[in-house]
Amino acid sequence: MKKFKIISVLVIIVVLGIVGYFFFFASYSSGYRVGTIIKMSQRGVVFKTNEGQLHTGGVTAGGEGGLASTIWDFSVERGSDQILDKISKAADEQKRVKLFYKEKFYQWAFFGDTKYFIEEVEILESKTAPKPELKTDRKKKMKQN
User: Fold this and answer.
1) Distance between CA atoms of 75 and 111, rounded to whole angstroms?
2) 101 neighbors 74 (Cβ within 8 angstroms)
3) What pairs with residue 21 in β-bridges?
4) Is 10 domain-assigned?
5) Residue, of 103 and 138, whose pLDDT is higher
6) What is the pLDDT of residues 64-105, one digit of tens each?
7) Does residue 88 fall inside a structural domain?
8) Domain total for the chain?
């Protein structure tokens, strides 16, 4: 009977450890968002976290007829200096970025303020549309020929 109690307690501890590990490190979803970085900050007294905001563009209608911009909050894990450098560069140059993220099951305050953690940053080059040719430009070309 004593062996059964010891084995039961060990099994419960192992199961709780696996469940805890799962909620602590496992990802719920992954994807990417595109927009312009509008804010990046480091927060915390004991546990420093890197938090940012991405303006994804566009405007959505609010509940009472007002308008609200679409801003997405995200976190960057400690030690991800390369990601922070790319985000800083994109913000300084006001370039659009594609942020690849993983969403965690639970938001732990000492990891970050959000459940969304950036895994990769791609700085998008601005694509300028070709300038439309005006009628006056066509007339000038015809006169030159």
Assistant:
1) 8
2) yes
3) none
4) no
5) 103
6) 655 566 898 999 988 888 999 999 999 998 899 999 999 887
7) yes
8) 1
* Chain CA centroid to CA 26, Å: 17
Q: Could you tell me the CA-to-CA distances from 132 to 128, 135, 136, 138, 141 in Å, in that order?
A: 12, 10, 12, 11, 15
Residue 98 domain-assigned (yes or no): yes
> Quick check: 75 and 67 in contact, CB under 8 A?
no
Is 102:27 a contact under the CB 8 Å cutoff?
yes
Amino acid at 43: R
Which pair of structure tokens corresponds to residue 13? 């501890």
Classify each residue of 59-88 as buried b or exposed e, where b means 16 or more C-beta atoms within 10 Å of its C-beta.
eeeeeeeeeeeeeeebbbebebeebbebbe
**Inter-residue contact 97 to 34 (CB < 8 Å):** yes
- Output 88 or 48, whichever has higher pLDDT: 88
Residues 6+ apart with CB under 8 A from 114: 51, 73, 74, 75, 107
Q: Which pLDDT tens digit goes with each residue over 19-47? A: 877 777 777 788 999 999 999 988 887 88
Cα-based distances in Å from 102 to 14, 114, 139, 141: 26, 11, 55, 54
**116: which 2 tokens?**
């969304």
